[in-house]
Amino acid sequence: MLRTSRRQLLAGTGFTALAGLAPRTAWAQGPSAGKANVFVGTGGHGHTFPGASLPFGMAQLSPDTDNARWDACSGYHDTDGSIMGFSHTHLSGTGIGDMLDVLVVPTRGKLELTPGKLGSPDMGYRQRFTDEFAEPGYYRVRLESGVQAELTVTERCGLHRYRFPNGPGHILIDFAHMILDDWDTGALIEQASLLLQPDGMLTGHRQVNRWAKGRHIHFAMELSRKPDRVQFFDDGDKPAMEGSTGVQGRTLKVALFFDDAGGDPILIKTGLSGVSVEGAKAALAAEVPGWDFDGASKAARAAWARELNCVRVKGGTEAQRTIMASALYHAFLAPTLFTDRDGRYIGLDGEEHQAPEGEAAFSTYSLWDTYRTLHPLLTLVQPERAAVFTRDLIRQTEQSPYGPPVWPLQGVETGTMIGWHSVVTLAEAKVKGIEADYAAAWPNIRKRAFDREFKDSPSSLGRGYYYDLNYIPADKVWESVSRTQEYAYDDWAMVVLAEAAGAHDDAEALRKRSLNYRNVLDASIGFARPRFSDGTWWAPYDPVQIGHMPEPWWRDYTEANGWQATFLNQHDIYGQIELFGGDAAFEKKLDDLFNAPSTLPDNAPPDISGLVGQYAHGNEPNHHVAYLYAYAGAPHKTQAMVRRLLTEMYKADPDGVIGNDDCGQMSAWFIMSALGFYPVDPVSAVYVFGSPLFDEAEMDLGGGRTLRVRAPGNGPNAPYVQSVRWNGKPWTRNWIDHADLAKGGELVFEMGARPSRFGTALADRPPSFGRAAGNPS
Predict the structure, then answer these.
(1) Which of 331, 445, 564, 574 has its CA 20 to 30 A from that of 23?
(2) Could you say which DSSP state residue 715 is in?
(3) Cα–Cα distance between 171 and 163 in angstroms, integer?
(4) What's the pTM value of the predicted model, to 2 decimals?
């Protein structure tokens, strides 16, 4: 396989380097689109997995190659040479690991109960592998034991098909398998049980205290062939009493032995539930009543074909079309289904709930990441699904002891990252006309906004200081600069939700408070700067550093430094331009960002990656920054930089995502930017024009509406917009409303090799904070 290193790619223009395709994928999305390569992101720091799934499904059945390092957050890394087994739940692109429930290990020879270390594949039950193949909804590999493994899924069930050589073989179910981390303390698994039912069904439950501490998983498993012998193992891998039909404890396993595993393939089907074993059984009964693996695989592929066909492109290189299809695939993996067949689910209060008829609950909302581009993408190309997510987030807001969700995972609020950005997703949906009972969420949102006594998660620390000082002091609270800015953006989003609930006084207070981001911007030096509780600034100031404290664990910014945090503001761009001295000064500050030396301190987190100067594309806080030139009257610089990022930061191979994909956010940035427009401030419901990558694109918008984007004159050396037409009429603005775009029609970008004056006039710049360019604040 041709591999291009990240270093080689960034050293050149990126256009020729994209020619290298990973040959492991052979499934076509459509004649004018690309081939979705599910291995994109499984190398580097992308943290994706290649196994079988359905769009937004509960079951995500995939091989696990490692469970004990940062680049194994999804359980798989392309550079690993051995497979531990196949587990049923995964996270796509996250920076923290969890899941990997119900590991199935098909093999031969001596029974091994532990996998051994990654660097010693001949120890334990690890197996080298060859002939790996995957496409959306299906995965296949040949293990060194001679077993051929195939995987596919339904919404809540994983299906396995194993072809053994003639002779003895066994299948180990390792129910102790999970992500391990150096930070873990205490019992990681508790209340675990395995039980072999009289009819041969294997059931199990465990409570896991990894990232989502206290989450529950239940399963029900059937095999197409009855094993000749079953052996359970309890804590410490001690064999249970001979003849036992079950075991309880924490680290449980069971081995299923076959005197002759050859002949007909051994099929396994596993139902999943976050509620009960009965829910897992119901999933099996309804979704996989028989043993038709090929039928299930065909249905999974068809489901993906329907979903991925919502965006079709022509032009660009073959690799770029592959990147687009692969990005769509990763954008449609999460949030993940979390309701049983009967609508039951575990809420963020830890209680069992019933979803309204026709509705569903979901997990895996990576909202610090996905509010920026993934959810705006869904409101455009998947409006009905976006409405389902909106109503689900409202219910979760009502049920959670923390109010608006932050990073919910399988009935647990992890409180990961900062802010409570579900309010952004809700506000965006409201502004874009998605119908839901927003007022029902307001009481708990209001508590998060104003009530000092309301329960805090790690994401919302320092609110008292924020209320009293209008910023969070760096000598009191970790990540104070970023918290101040992101709390201010959530204030901006909550304005919309307060108005929806009729709380107009609250809305006005929040609108005013949303300008608090300015209180950590030092206009005298033009940087986001740590500020102490006495009002003084950190000095001497170094924008490359991530914290003012000498200890390496203290940070003043969230996965950023002073350079990157300076441009976190998304909702009051003209206010910041004025604060920094006007258009020319702000444009120069952006130039300085993209041209600064790409040096980082030794204690910088690995998330700060994909550097162009000090701009970090590999992490979400900077994702809107290239588009800020358009507000300062220099849209041609937006166009040039967006095109550069599209071609340098993404590749059509495993190392094809410059940072963690973060549940589709990195992929969604590529999709929307490649189409030619981007939601700098999702709450404003406008898109800023960039530089379309493809000659033509067509999007289904729901309700029979279609959006077509054409870019005549486009090419690798022609990234600049010369003029725009919308539905045949000249369009002078360098932005467009969602309300216009969502109606469908044709958007035409005339492209050229040199910058133009398009979109530079004050009247043609995007609105921000509810005002046009040039209007006083």
Answers:
(1) 331
(2) B
(3) 12
(4) 0.95
